[in-house]
Amino acid sequence: MPTSTQIQLIARPVGWPTHDDFRTVVVDLPDLAPNQVRVANEFLSVDPYMRGRMNDVKSYIPAFRLGETMTGGAVGRIVESTSPTHPVGAVVVHDLGWRDVAQGDAGAFRVVDEIPGVPNSVFLGILGMTGLTAYVGLKYIAHLKPGDAVFVSGAAGAVGTAAGQIARLEGASRVVGSAGSPDKVALLTDRYGYDAAVDYKQAPIREQLADIAGDGIDVYFDNVGGDHLEAAIDVMSQGGRAALCGAIAGYNSTETAPGPDNLVKIISRGLTLQGFTLGNYAHHFPEFAAKMGPWLASGEVVHAETVVDGIDNAVDAFFQLMRGANVGKMLVRI
Amino acid sequence: MPTSTQIQLIARPVGWPTHDDFRTVVVDLPDLAPNQVRVANEFLSVDPYMRGRMNDVKSYIPAFRLGETMTGGAVGRIVESTSPTHPVGAVVVHDLGWRDVAQGDAGAFRVVDEIPGVPNSVFLGILGMTGLTAYVGLKYIAHLKPGDAVFVSGAAGAVGTAAGQIARLEGASRVVGSAGSPDKVALLTDRYGYDAAVDYKQAPIREQLADIAGDGIDVYFDNVGGDHLEAAIDVMSQGGRAALCGAIAGYNSTETAPGPDNLVKIISRGLTLQGFTLGNYAHHFPEFAAKMGPWLASGEVVHAETVVDGIDNAVDAFFQLMRGANVGKMLVRI
């Protein structure tokens, strides 16, 4: 009988999660019912938002259930099918998460067209929800327009590497970013099209950002929160717009941290801070994919990813993500 | 020779201003040149924004100059004129500030139509920049729509008393506010149309607001900042919008204060915080006045003001404003 190896959450972490909060199970898979598929996963997505779902609090998406398999984005290939719309060999994206083999009704799996020369992992990253997050934040939250100067915090992350490249292709005059190591900073300017970048672990971001902000920042894409938001407000131009996408700085804190000390500048400079989660903006996916597909195929956009091999290392991959050990999208390859 | 008694700023306050920061001068007035007017002021405006202008820092409006007469809104009646467009007896609004008699080119004085039964002080308050600030904040910053639940902080102030009434007339389902004394709280519900109000000096605003916020706040009009903004974010509904208009809580601080500890909710709830100053929105005045004039004439809106008599008490009036001793618009009657 075929089996599926799966990772389950068994305890709600307080502060930083540990291995004791997870377990691995091997599940027997029944025969397919009509109109179902069995999928051999190729890549699993691990994402910052998952930390929030490990807490049992009311949020925009429900908490993970204890004793059940971690859900999340995954891409794989159909190996068995009773569905006329989902043939064996097709590549599919789904949300069944941390398991090596996924199985269920065909409707839960979205067939995608492979792009020649580009790995299927992009459907979890720059050509998936990650890239869409960057696009929506820039275009529909911060209302990026040609000529704007853009700052992206956490710029070496999955959303950040996408945001910098999208901003440039959408006409930004200048794109600067922050990241957490000298290597990442170098990648931002060498590979991901940033004009300047700083290592926020070397000195206070507030001082460093002032040095690279030029005449001021029109659009701020915030993946970090905390001191980064404060630093950005300092250098934002009259009428500047901030898209608040993530606040990874505080995700593992057991205490709340005070906010920026300079919010009064929001008034004097007429700034707008808008938070968003992708749920309300998923309808922009076709518009986004129609741009990003060709950008990837032509090489105008390069995808960034950090890959960990093996389902048994999924929890470690998540911990690495939380510590910022990744560049670009963090993935588990099965 | 006619004279004008004027109040001048002579030192930049550090923290709370004192009488030593001001002086009174009596100035001889020359004969009128062609196309000029002399105006006997009836009311002078004292406003929270003036505190910011006493500091020598770059802001959206320039700092007051030391040794010059305090500028600001005023309304009076023309007593002498060499202008064909500005006849003796006309009521005019101008920005020449803290003086009993104002004189200058006619173009600096805007003729207004008196409203029967309504004092001319309204042109400095609810039918002037104060009312326009409330209107713009609700309509063009927070995008108030019928059915929204609204929270106004500093609700007994000039902008706050206007905002509550405008919100109701524009279709808000519920309007709640905060103020700094039991008397003010009573006025908000008895006279200015608030459904509920709390005294923020009695208990933490965060706790009290949660009690009166009902199913959540859609629109927050912020005159206070600090703990009030934090409290509002706690109770804002998905997609809520905050218009940040003032932060009087911090105007006399010599140190910066940390911001709200709950900004992560901006992301999860898709909130928008937008600051504004009236400069960029003054073109909405005709639309606003076309509504507010009839509202005042019919009694649908009542104006709120606290009047101090005598130009010699202008500085005291400003101090009272800073301490929150006023209800509604703070004015000096000449």
Description:
Two copies of one chain form a homodimer. Chain A is α/β, with parallel strands linked by helices. Chain A has two domains: 3-125 and 303-333, Medium-chain alcohol dehydrogenases, catalytic domain (Quinone Oxidoreductase, Chain A, domain 1, Alpha-Beta Complex); 129-279, Rossmann fold, CATH 3.40.50.720. In chain A, 26% of the residues lie in helices and 27% in strands. In chain A, strands 3, 5, 6, 7, 8, 15 and 16 form a seven-stranded mixed beta sheet that branches. A six-stranded parallel beta sheet of chain A has the order 11-10-9-12-13-14, with helices on both faces. In chain A, strand 12, helix 6 and strand 13 (236-244) form a beta-alpha-beta unit. In chain A, helix 2 crosses helix 8 and helix 5 packs parallel to helix 6. The mean pLDDT of chain A is 93. Chain A binds chain B through residues 52, 59-60, 225, 229-230, 238-239, 244-247, 250, 256-277, 280, and chain B through 52, 59-60, 225, 229-230, 238-239, 244-247, 250, 256-277, 280.
Map the helices and strands.
The structure is a homodimer of 334-residue chains.
Chain A: E1 3-9, E2 22-28, E3 36-45, H1 49-53, E4 68-69, E5 74-81, E6 91-94, E7 101-105, E8 110-112, H2 129-141, E9 149-152, H3 158-169, E10 174-179, H4 182-190, E11 196-199, H5 205-212, E12 217-222, H6 226-235, E13 236-244, H7 264-268, E14 272-275, H8 285-298, E15 305-309, H9 314-323, E16 329-333
Parallel strand pairs in A: 9-10, 9-12, 10-11, 12-13, 13-14, 15-16
Antiparallel strand pairs in A: 1-2, 1-4, 3-5, 3-7, 3-16, 5-6, 6-8
